[in-house]
Design a protein that fits this description.
Distance between the termini: 52 Å
Strand order of the largest sheet: 1-2
Order of helices and strands: HHHHHHHHHEHHEHHHHHHHHHHHH
Strand content: under 5%
Largest sheet: 2 strands, parallel
Radius of gyration: 25 Å
Helix content: 55-70%
Number of helices: 23
Length: 485
């Protein structure tokens, strides 16, 4: 087909949400079924256009064969005149700059929209939420595999895209349907968001991630209607909290790039709802993700952005949390003096914090136990480089955390146990290390957190090379049994 040949599908068909979702997911059984029904094309016509046999089209439609060949995907795109962006391809040679199907184009599932092209406006935030949740809820196993392989954006590409957080939101009028959501319904949504956040904090993992995304989609739909201003502001804040939970759940499941998508959505929603303090908390979450990705410089920039934007409104407990993330970045950079200075600031701010009612509920978790656990974890980072100097200090801090927050802390308790076991290995106390490893595995069994399993996997090499030690062999077997289950 040359550049002048008209497409077989009208723009109305290509603009349908179900057609676009099927194209994005490369679900060609659904694609061919929908265009037969909506586009009026026969199987023979589809086969001829795509240079396939009618029998091949039939096996694709009935699900007995999937399209996996890149060449076939390109033939389908060119034969049906489907813009490349809808199939995760580069623009096809026949596409013009203003092809109708390129307007409001979605990205392939698992791909992030270009942050520079998304204005910091409430309406754009609603659109972004609708897109992310729709593509995520439709994600199949193949798309999930692609998302697991996706790397988080780093450096200037990430940091520059977040500068809009420091600028007041620009509101652009849009056509709304009338909405009738009242404060009672908003309060119910807030309660649900809080329950999801608590579930994630305690258990981790992605068991309820789809439920969070479904609730997020509902909030997005409500914001697409014309609600009262007070309702709208609170809805944006609910969206921010749900998106933040979706981000940590995605990250805990190994979906690093998808987690970043939801962190960015959470930041934009907090910005739209005027919740500066939660926005700073989102940036702290993004910084933590960067630290796990060995991007300490990026993490430090994100924390400084949070501190700058929330300086005038943030409370002492949240400010202390930001200082611990700052200390983490310094430790990762090997700046020991900076680590101790930031940690001391965190302890000073936390000591000045009042009751939990003085600050948002979501920061109530940050108490003396959390500070001890975070500090112990960072001292453990330093102990990996210099065990003699830092291992004992790290173990003392982690023991303080363990004695203060107990097993009900779920994921944090398991991570503390794993950290203490590693401290004992680094200190050379093999018998104590084996005992702590068994306790760490027991704690890990109580959580679905991917992060916990990752940390446990990093503990495993310490158990190798002690074949004559029965306790260590038993500890090694317990790790292997859990990780293989």
């Amino acid at each position: 087909m040359d550049a002048t040949t008209p497409g077989l599908l009208t723009s109305d068909v290509l603009d349908r949400a179900d057609v676009r979702a099927a194209l994005i997911e490369h679900d060609f059984a659904a694609v061919f079924t929908l265009i037969k029904k909506r586009g009026g094309l026969s199987q023979n016509r589809i086969a001829s256009a795509c240079q396939l046999t009618p029998g091949k089209v039939s096996t694709i439609i009935n699900g007995s064969q999937r399209v996996t060949s890149f060449d076939v995907v390109c033939r389908i795109a060119d034969g049906l005149r489907v813009p490349g962006v809808l199939l995760g391809l580069a623009p096809r040679p026949w596409e013009g700059k203003h092809h109708p199907a390129q307007q409001n184009r979605p990205e392939a599932s698992g791909d992030r929209p270009d942050a520079d092209e998304i204005p910091w406006r409430p309406d754009a935030t609603v659109d972004l939420a609708a897109h992310l949740t729709r593509s995520d809820l439709l994600m199949d196993r193949r798309a999930l595999t692609r998302s697991l392989a996706g790397a988080a954006v780093t450096g200037a590409a990430l940091l520059d895209s977040l500068e809009g957080w420091l600028v007041p939101a620009a509101n652009v009028p849009r056509q709304h349907r009338p909405g009738r959501l009242g404060m009672r319904e908003v309060e119910e949504l807030e309660t649900t968001a809080r329950a999801f956040r608590q579930w994630d904090h305690q258990y981790g993992g992605g068991l309820r991630r789809k439920a969070v995304l479904g609730q997020l989609a509902e909030v997005s739909s409500a914001l697409d209607d014309h609600q009262a201003p007070a309702v709208t502001d609170r809805l944006y804040r609910v969206m921010a909290q749900l998106a933040g939970t979706a981000a940590t759940m995605a990250w805990d499941s190994g979906l690093h790039r998808r987690a970043q998508d939801y962190y960015r959505l959470a930041l934009r929603a907090a910005h739209a709802g005027g919740d500066v303090v939660f926005g700073a908390n989102v940036l702290a979450g993004m910084a933590r993700q960067m630290l796990y990705r060995d991007r300490a410089d990026d993490a430090l920039q994100l924390i400084h952005l949070a501190q700058e934007g929330a300086r005038d409104v943030i409370g002492p407990r949240a400010r202390a949390m930001l200082h611990t993330r700052e200390a983490w970045a310094y430790a990762a950079q090997g700046r020991i003096a900076g680590f101790h200075r930031a940690t001391a600031k965190a302890a000073e701010d936390l000591a000045s914090a009042g009751t939990d009612n003085d600050e948002p509920y979501w920061i109530a978790y940050f108490d003396e136990a959390e500070l001890a656990g975070v500090t112990g974890g960072r001292l453990l980072d330093l102990a990996r480089r210099d065990p003699r100097r830092h291992a004992a200090q790290a173990a003392d801090a982690i023991r303080t955390a363990l004695s203060s927050r107990g097993t009900e802390a779920g994921r944090s308790h398991a991570l503390d146990r794993i950290g203490l076991a590693e401290c004992q290995f680094l200190a050379g106390d093999i018998r104590a290390a084996a005992t702590e490893t068994v306790l760490a595995v027991q704690a890990a069994r109580g959580t679905q957190s991917g992060r916990v399993r990752t940390q446990l996997g990093q503990l495993y090499p310490y158990t190798v090379g002690h074949s004559t030690s029965r306790p260590v062999c038993e500890a090694r077997d317990s790790i292997r049994d859990l990780l293989s289950s």
